[in-house]
Amino acid sequence: MSKETVLSNARIVLQNDILSGSILIRDGRIADISEGSSLAGEDFEGDYIIPGLVELHTDHLEGHYSPRPGIRWNKTAAIQAHDAQIVTSGITTVFDCLRMGADEDGGFEHGEMREMADAIQSAEKEGRLRAEHLIHLRCEVSADNVLQHFADFENDPYVRLVSLMDHAPGQRQFQTMDQYIFYYQKKRGLTDEEFARFCARRIAESDRNSTPNRDAISKVCAERGITVASHDDATSAHVDEAIENGVRLAEFPTSIDAARLSHENGMSVLMGAPNIVRGRSHSGNIAARDLAQLGVLDVLSSDYVPLSLLHAPFILADEVEGITLSKAIAMVTATPARTVSLNDRGRIETGLRADLVRVHRSHGVPVTRSVWREGRRVA
Which residues, 6+ apart, have CB-to-CB distance to 348 below 8 Å? Predict the structure, then answer.
């Protein structure tokens, strides 16, 4: 017998409209969308119902696994804590970022992220998780050992997104040394001499490794059908490089020109939702709101604050001319899903997965009241 659920008296956020009506869920899929209230089912009392959020880039799991320098938490416990915060923020599909490439100054040991991925997959099979967890490999292409780390995921079907990153000084995210000094010298307590050696080593690693590692990783991704993301592009040359690497997602461009060129070349431009909430970048780069006003912002990511992914679209709809709530919600649902070829979710349409979120908002920060994943209530 089919299992049915009715959600009634809701403001349903569709791709181009907001409909006051009801949704019928049958066997985990959206079976019907109708205007007007239903006498049956759960009364939403006029709350919004939106698609489940699709999160492509979050480092949030790292904070649970390594809550203090040198501390490693139980992996399963860390994953469950991360999952609980993710799903109660309205996120039903999350790409957990795992770092590839490290040296003696930071990162994780070889094999550690493979163990984390195994723990995520075990937790899912054991029914511990409420959101669907997929894997985003953040590849530090300047690192000597990035290909060794990447090889651990050679046959992993959970890997659906790979980003190509280079955090060497003087480029991309750290175009000025003032930013780099704050992130690496002050935070690590390095003397000027130690910092000079650190920078020289990082620049040499980038010169030696960046191009061959980008080429090798992007080739594997093309063969396996994995979406490739660029990271912190700043110049037209960076965008040209992204095009050559088959990039579909431009993460956190650091200049308006790079964002515009990426968008014009068919890439989805991703910026941080915390950037929208705060009104500026935490690292002193461009404001995501400026890109929204220019029409070149496509996707938002919660990055380091899960609830920001729900909060930011409402801010954009309130404050940026020309961005409706439907358009803003698409930045955290339909567009990220399409960018990584998850075509069964991200929109409220008949036949798609019933990944849905009940949201109450009269003003200020929205409240997640209920969450469904494939028709099953998970929060």
Answer: 12, 13, 14, 23, 30, 33, 49, 50, 51, 356
Q: Tell me the whole-structure pTM to 2 decimals.
A: 0.92
Q: Which residues lie closer than 8 Å to 317 by C-beta, 6 or more apart?
A: 323, 324, 325, 327, 328
Give the closest residue to 98 by CA, choosing from 77, 75, 80: 75
Q: Encode pLDDT of 108-143 as tens digits.
A: 888 999 999 999 999 999 999 999 999 999 999 999
**What are the tens digits of pLDDT across the range 147-170?**
999 999 999 999 999 999 997 776
Rg (CA), the chain: 21
What value does the mean pLDDT take over residues 210-236?
Answer: 96
List Cβ neighbours of 113 (8 Å cut-off, separation of 6 or more). Answer: 98, 99, 100, 149, 152
Q: Which residues contact 319 (CB under 8 A, 6 or more apart)?
A: 289
Sequence-distant (6+) residues with CB within 8 A of 137 are 97, 98, 100, 150, 153, 159, 161, 162, 163
Residue-level pLDDT at 331: 98
Residue with tokens 């070829």: 341
Alpha helix segments (H runs only) across 32-152: 60-65, 75-88, 112-125, 146-151
In what helix (H) or strand (E) does residue 160 lie, and over which residues does it extend?
strand 159-165
Can you tell me the distance from the alpha carbon of 182 to that of 172, in angstroms, rounded to the nearest whole number?
16
Check if the beta carbon of residue 5 is closer than 8 Å to that of residue 374. Answer: no
Whether the CB-CB separation of 309 and 301 falls below 8 Å is answered with yes
Three-class secondary structure assignment of 236-305? HHHHHHHHHCCCCEEECCCCHHHHHHHHHCCCEEEEEHHHHHHCCCCCCCCCHHHHHHHCCCCEEECECC
d(CA 39, CA 376): 21
Q: For residues 331 and 51, is the Cβ–Cβ distance under 8 A?
A: no
Residue 309 has pLDDT above 90, yes or no: yes
Tell me the C-alpha distance between 265 and 242, whole Å: 10
Specify whether the CB–CB gap between 109 and 63 falls below 8 A.
Answer: no
